[in-house]
Amino acid sequence: MTVNETNLPVTSKILIFTFLLSGTIHLVNPGVFEALIPPFLGKNYLWIMVSGVTEIIAALGILTKQSWAPKFTVLILLPVGL
């Protein structure tokens, strides 16, 4: 895994920073996101932890220019937009 962030567009850098920050907050202070869990999923912190880890994975995938990263990022953002 090589990282050469100088070739990344500014928008990608912003997305990486945002996902790393948000993903870290998900893991460090999950209570912040508790109100965002839909009632039908219950108040289980597992959803918060999983979403935090997926955001970090997406950020690292974009940072390292993995071919799967853009599609993965869209997939994890879809439930938020619905």
What does this structure look like?
The chain is an all-alpha fold and 82 residues long. The chain contains 3 helices and no strands. It has helices at residues 10-28, 45-63, 69-81. The longest helix has 19 residues, at 10-28. It is elongated, with a radius of gyration of 14 Å. The mean pLDDT is 90.
How many DSSP E strands?
0
Rg calculated over all Cα atoms: 14 Å
Question: Judging from the principal axes of the Cα atoms, what is the shape?
Answer: elongated
- Class inferred from helices and paired strands: mainly alpha
Distance between the termini: 33 Å
Task: Compute the number of helices.
Answer: 3
Tell me about the largest β-sheet. none
Fraction in beta strands: under 5%
| H/E topology pattern | HHH
Uncertain segments are none
| Proportion in helices | 55-70%
